[in-house]
């Protein structure tokens, strides 16, 4: 068995090896159980946390390396944001700024985002570069961007600094977020909804939030959007990649690590701190912008960076449980009118729905569609500087090349056009 499985797993993981220390692969390939699991992720049978068996095959915990010191005198004490400090839809970035890991004013460069996401929460470089460069391209100046809205003149030159993450609905910001409302329902897309946080906790019984509970909660949010939001839109990039990130990042980046729980454990208290929630279940309240890294908290091990392949594994595992997550389309201006578009038509024949969970296709599809970012400008559909970033990113993967996008297919959705 081992002999036949080993080459399969290596073949499965090989295109992604650049992002990992080689021993992770060697270890994985030696173990027939991991080999079988790697295969079954692709065969869609393993549950929401399936990818951790492949990407964290042996326990690693090093207290000294993983401890994030935010105590008095550390230089990274929590401070409330001031009136001119920018804060937005991302609780992780808001927390980084509140601790001075990012500039406290909320405006930072690509390099700063890449450094901080790696050092503070163990994000892999390829994912960090992609997220940070995308922010700079679609929401920023090309090299820097705001984690909230448009920066004032005191922070960055007016007119050159971009609109920030909060201003990026459908480019970066997606519908069916965990705790943020949809733009066209609440009039904003960045404020934490206490009722949605309560639903997340209710979907996570027993004191802990897990990959399984987050995926079940995502399904609930997805269905609720279809039935209550006339403008719900599940876009090819925002729906396929940003929306799952908003869920998987909660566990993969916010969980506390220890020798007993090297893959992480996310208690209610820990998630409350990261989301600026206080009070007890049934009586929560939020202080917007006060996101905080808990005291005595240990990040994920850098031996297992949460990078593109791991993230793609999580996205695939969730879609295997709930294939509708991959339905590109939206409501037609009324609730319960969700209409899908044909992926094959949308990509001018390059991708098709039946193959989307095979090999690297899903990641290729989502990342390449991220370059289709300016529906509001009549620019040609694919944004050239961004295509460069994306092609660097997908060079690790074996990707069919997206040449053009039939944008008209999306124009029937008011949530896309608004
Ligand atoms: C450069 C890196 C990052 C970028 C560009 C980024 C950007 C974003 C954006 C645009 C959203 C809104 C998405 C939506 O509409 O749902 C978001 C949400 C989110 N981000 Fe980040 N993020 C980054 C890093 C992180 C990190 C390091 C964490 C965790 C520590 C994190 C955790 C989250 C969570 C949990 C949400 C969902 C919030 C909710 O709706 O409840 N992000 N992020
Ligand atoms: C993280 O886990 C360690 C070991 O169990 C524990 O001592 C620490 O208090 C935990 N941190 C948080 C923020 O829960
Ligand atoms: C895809 O395009 C073909 C050819 O134009 C068309 O016949 C078909 O109806 C389209 N499918 C969908 C689901 O739009």
3D architecture notes:
By secondary structure, the chain is mostly helical. It has two domains: 6-44, no CATH class; 63-412, Chloroperoxidase-like (Chloroperoxidase, Orthogonal Bundle), CATH 1.10.489.10. Helix content is 42%, strand content 6%. The protein has 18 helices and eleven strands. It has helices spanning 2-13, 22-30, 32-42, 50-55, 63-66, 91-98, 110-121, 125-139, 183-186, 194-202, 211-228, 238-254, 268-274, 308-321, 343-346, 361-369, 384-394, 414-417, and strands at 67-68, 107-109, 144-146, 208-209, 233-234, 266-267, 277-278, 285-286, 297-298, 329-330, 339-340. The strands form five sheets. The protein has a three-stranded antiparallel beta sheet. A two-stranded antiparallel sheet has the order 1-9. The chain has a two-stranded antiparallel ribbon with strand order 2-3. Strand 10 and strand 11 (339-340) form a beta hairpin. It is globular and about 55 Å long. The N and C termini lie far apart (55 Å). Residues 1-25 and 374-381 have low confidence and may be disordered. The site of protoporphyrin IX containing FE has 26 residues, from helix 6, helix 7, helix 8 and helix 12.
């Amino acid at each position: 068995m081992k002999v036949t499985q080993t080459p399969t797993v290596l073949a499965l993981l090989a295109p992604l090896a650049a992002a990992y220390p080689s021993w992770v692969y060697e270890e994985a390939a030696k173990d027939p159980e991991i080999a079988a699991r790697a295969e079954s992720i692709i065969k869609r049978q393993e549950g929401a946390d399936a990818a951790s068996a492949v990407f964290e095959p042996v326990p690693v915990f090093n207290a000294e390396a993983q401890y994030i010191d935010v105590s008095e005198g550390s230089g990274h004490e929590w401070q409330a944001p001031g009136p001119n400090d920018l804060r937005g839809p991302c609780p992780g970035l808001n927390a980084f700024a509140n601790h001075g890991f990012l500039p406290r004013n909320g405006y930072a460069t690509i390099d700063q985002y890449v450094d901080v996401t790696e050092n503070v929460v163990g994000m892999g470089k390829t994912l960090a570069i992609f997220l940070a460069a995308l922010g700079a391209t679609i929401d920023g100046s090309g090299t820097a961007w705001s984690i909230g809205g448009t920066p004032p003149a005191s922070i960055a030159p007016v007119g050159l600094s971009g609109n920030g993450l909060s201003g990026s609905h459908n480019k970066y910001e997606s519908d069916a977020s965990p705790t943020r409302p949809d733009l066209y329902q609440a009039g904003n897309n960045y404020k934490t909804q206490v009722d949605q946080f309560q639903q997340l906790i209710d979907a996570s019984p027993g004191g802990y939030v897990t990959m399984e509970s987050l995926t079940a909660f995502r399904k609930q949010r997805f269905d609720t959007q279809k039935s209550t939001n006339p403008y719900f839109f599940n876009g090819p990039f925002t729906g396929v990649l940003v929306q799952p990130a908003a869920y998987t990042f909660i566990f993969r980046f916010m969980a506390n690590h220890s020798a007993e729980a090297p893959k992480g454990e996310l208690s209610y208290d820990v998630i409350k701190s990261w989301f600026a929630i206080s009070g007890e279940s049934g009586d929560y309240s939020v202080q917007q912008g006060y996101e905080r890294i808990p005291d005595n908290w240990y990040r994920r091990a850098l031996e297992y960076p949460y990078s593109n392949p791991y993230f793609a594994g999580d996205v695939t595992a969730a879609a295997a449980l709930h294939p509708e997550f991959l339905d590109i389309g939206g409501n037609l201006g009324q609730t319960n009118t969700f209409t899908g578009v044909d992926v094959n038509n949308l990509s001018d024949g390059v991708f098709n729905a039946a193959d989307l969970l095979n090999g690297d296709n899903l990641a290729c599809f989502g990342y390449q569609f991220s370059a289709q970012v300016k529906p509001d400008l009549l620019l040609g559909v694919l944004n050239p500087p961004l295509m460069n970033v994306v092609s660097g990113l997908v060079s690790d993967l074996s990707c069919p090349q997206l040449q053009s996008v039939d944008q008209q297919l999306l124009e029937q959705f008011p949530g896309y056009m608004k």
